[in-house]
Amino acid sequence: MRVVAVVLSVDEAALLETSLPPAVAQADEVLVVDDACTDATAAVARRLGAHVVRLERRVSYASAMNAGLAATRGADAVLLLNADCVLEDGFVAAASAALEGDRVGSVAPLLLRATAGDEVDAAGMTI
Fold first, then answer.
1. How many of the other CB atoms lie within 10 Å of CB of 21?
2. What is the pLDDT of residue 61?
3. Is there a contact between 42 and 34 (Cβ–Cβ < 8 Å)?
4. What is each CA distance from 93 to 7, 17, 42, 62, in whole angstroms?
5. Dist CA 40 CA 63 (whole Å)
6. pTM score, two decimals?
Protein backbone atom coordinates (compact mmCIF):
# COMPACT_ATOMS: atom_id res chain seq x y z
CA MET A 1 0.00 0.00 0.00
CA ARG A 2 1.42 3.38 -1.05
CA VAL A 3 0.95 5.94 1.75
CA VAL A 4 1.38 9.66 1.20
CA ALA A 5 1.52 11.94 4.25
CA VAL A 6 0.23 15.49 3.90
CA VAL A 7 1.55 17.82 6.62
CA LEU A 8 0.20 21.35 7.06
CA SER A 9 2.54 24.10 8.20
CA VAL A 10 1.42 27.62 9.10
CA ASP A 11 4.79 29.18 10.00
CA GLU A 12 5.73 26.02 11.92
CA ALA A 13 9.22 25.24 10.61
CA ALA A 14 10.49 24.57 14.13
CA LEU A 15 7.82 21.90 14.68
CA LEU A 16 8.67 20.25 11.35
CA GLU A 17 12.19 19.58 12.65
CA THR A 18 10.64 17.02 15.03
CA SER A 19 7.58 15.84 13.14
CA LEU A 20 8.97 15.27 9.64
CA PRO A 21 11.75 12.71 10.28
CA PRO A 22 9.41 9.93 11.51
CA ALA A 23 6.87 10.74 8.78
CA VAL A 24 9.54 10.65 6.06
CA ALA A 25 10.89 7.38 7.49
CA GLN A 26 7.47 5.69 7.39
CA ALA A 27 5.43 7.13 4.51
CA ASP A 28 6.22 6.52 0.86
CA GLU A 29 6.06 10.27 0.24
CA VAL A 30 5.58 13.34 2.41
CA LEU A 31 4.07 16.57 1.14
CA VAL A 32 4.31 19.69 3.29
CA VAL A 33 1.63 22.26 2.57
CA ASP A 34 3.31 25.65 3.05
CA ASP A 35 0.30 27.85 3.83
CA ALA A 36 1.91 31.12 2.70
CA CYS A 37 4.53 30.73 5.41
CA THR A 38 6.96 33.53 6.18
CA ASP A 39 9.40 31.28 8.05
CA ALA A 40 11.75 28.52 6.84
CA THR A 41 9.00 25.92 6.34
CA ALA A 42 9.88 25.16 2.70
CA ALA A 43 13.62 24.92 3.33
CA VAL A 44 13.19 22.67 6.38
CA ALA A 45 10.73 20.43 4.54
CA ARG A 46 13.06 19.97 1.57
CA ARG A 47 16.11 19.41 3.80
CA LEU A 48 14.26 16.66 5.67
CA GLY A 49 13.11 14.87 2.51
CA ALA A 50 9.60 16.20 1.98
CA HIS A 51 8.10 17.81 -1.11
CA VAL A 52 6.53 21.25 -0.77
CA VAL A 53 3.12 22.44 -1.93
CA ARG A 54 3.43 26.23 -1.71
CA LEU A 55 0.29 28.33 -1.30
CA GLU A 56 0.76 31.95 -2.29
CA ARG A 57 -1.87 33.31 0.09
CA ARG A 58 -3.00 32.08 3.50
CA VAL A 59 -6.14 29.96 3.30
CA SER A 60 -8.33 28.02 5.73
CA TYR A 61 -7.25 24.70 7.21
CA ALA A 62 -9.64 22.79 4.95
CA SER A 63 -8.51 24.64 1.80
CA ALA A 64 -4.85 24.06 2.64
CA MET A 65 -5.39 20.35 3.25
CA ASN A 66 -7.41 20.10 0.03
CA ALA A 67 -4.43 21.59 -1.84
CA GLY A 68 -2.24 18.88 -0.31
CA LEU A 69 -4.74 16.17 -1.23
CA ALA A 70 -4.88 17.47 -4.80
CA ALA A 71 -1.09 17.10 -5.03
CA THR A 72 -1.06 13.42 -4.02
CA ARG A 73 -0.46 11.07 -6.93
CA GLY A 74 -0.73 7.30 -6.90
CA ALA A 75 -1.60 7.06 -3.21
CA ASP A 76 -3.56 4.12 -1.87
CA ALA A 77 -3.89 5.92 1.47
CA VAL A 78 -3.37 9.49 2.61
CA LEU A 79 -2.26 10.44 6.11
CA LEU A 80 -3.30 13.97 7.16
CA LEU A 81 -1.03 15.51 9.79
CA ASN A 82 -0.57 18.80 11.57
CA ALA A 83 2.98 20.07 12.03
CA ASP A 84 2.95 19.20 15.73
CA CYS A 85 2.05 15.53 15.16
CA VAL A 86 4.93 13.10 15.73
CA LEU A 87 4.35 9.54 14.55
CA GLU A 88 5.47 6.63 16.71
CA ASP A 89 7.56 3.94 15.04
CA GLY A 90 5.31 1.50 13.21
CA PHE A 91 2.27 3.78 12.97
CA VAL A 92 2.01 3.77 9.17
CA ALA A 93 2.40 -0.02 9.02
CA ALA A 94 -0.30 -0.50 11.68
CA ALA A 95 -2.68 1.99 10.03
CA SER A 96 -2.11 0.40 6.62
CA ALA A 97 -2.85 -3.05 8.02
CA ALA A 98 -6.06 -1.77 9.59
CA LEU A 99 -7.14 -0.27 6.26
CA GLU A 100 -6.90 -3.70 4.66
CA GLY A 101 -9.89 -4.85 6.72
CA ASP A 102 -13.31 -5.38 5.22
CA ARG A 103 -15.54 -2.32 5.33
CA VAL A 104 -12.77 -0.03 6.63
CA GLY A 105 -12.50 3.33 4.89
CA SER A 106 -10.45 5.30 7.39
CA VAL A 107 -8.53 4.88 10.60
CA ALA A 108 -7.73 7.34 13.38
CA PRO A 109 -4.96 7.05 15.95
CA LEU A 110 -4.84 7.62 19.66
CA LEU A 111 -3.44 11.15 20.03
CA LEU A 112 -1.47 12.06 23.13
CA ARG A 113 -0.57 15.61 24.14
CA ALA A 114 3.21 15.93 24.25
CA THR A 115 3.00 18.85 26.68
CA ALA A 116 0.85 16.94 29.18
CA GLY A 117 2.60 13.58 29.47
CA ASP A 118 0.20 10.81 28.51
CA GLU A 119 -2.96 12.94 28.46
CA VAL A 120 -5.28 11.76 25.69
CA ASP A 121 -6.15 14.43 23.13
CA ALA A 122 -8.31 12.22 20.90
CA ALA A 123 -9.03 8.52 20.61
CA GLY A 124 -10.54 8.30 17.13
CA MET A 125 -14.14 7.42 16.45
CA THR A 126 -16.28 4.58 15.24
CA ILE A 127 -19.16 5.13 12.84
1. 16
2. 97
3. yes
4. 18, 22, 27, 26
5. 21
6. 0.88
